[in-house]
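pasting input
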Amino acid sequence: MNNCLDCKIKSAAVKTLTSDELQNLGNNCAQVYFKKGDIIFKEGAFSSNIIFLRSGLVKIHIAGPAKNQITKITKAPSFLGIPTTFNEKINHYSATAIEPTSVCFIDKDIFKDFIFKNGKFAYEVIVEICSSELSSFEKCVNRTQRNIHGRLANALLTFAEDIYGKDEFEMPLSRVELGNFVDTSRESVCRILTEFNNDKLIRLNGKSITILNRESLEAIRLYG
DNA sequence: GCATTAACCACAG
DNA sequence: CTGTGGTTAATGC
């Protein structure tokens, strides 16, 4: 069993729990490590857990009519699978680690119990779901109204700013995955990436990307 | 019409 | 898996 009482990586929701509740949580969760590429849960499979992403990076993806699509990239700390576990018997999407990742599997019933009995806990869960829904609205607009250059520039800036917090990072996605993420073909991703590189907007070296000209990328994100 | 854009295909590292 | 070049269909001017 886990010792959740002394865990340093608590979600905002879990921070509201009492010692008794934390004890209870520890008795009903399990900590697991995943390597890059490991599937954390799979679309179509039976689901009975809420998953807390303690550290690492995860892609959420859905099998569409034509191909697999990456819906979002989720960084720690956050809950995975709330929409797919609550009131659903099977997962409606998959989650795969794209970096070494540590998660806690939490029994769905205990999670529900906290929601019923602890209003602050429920509130923090709602806050997280709200911000997630907002970002999915934004992604919807981005996808529809930006051209490919804009979408890719947006993705690169998102990785640099929101995910890694620095201008130099290793792109955890392959070109194909990047295409699935920004809704384009892998060829276009390759082309535009080398274009950005040639124009000195980024330095590209395989998977390693450095943002060189943030202003221009931001302009491209806005105007394509 | 003509130009542009981006997907699809094919082939080579 | 990546990078490129050629071709093609759709769209805008």
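fyi Chain A has a mean pLDDT of 92.
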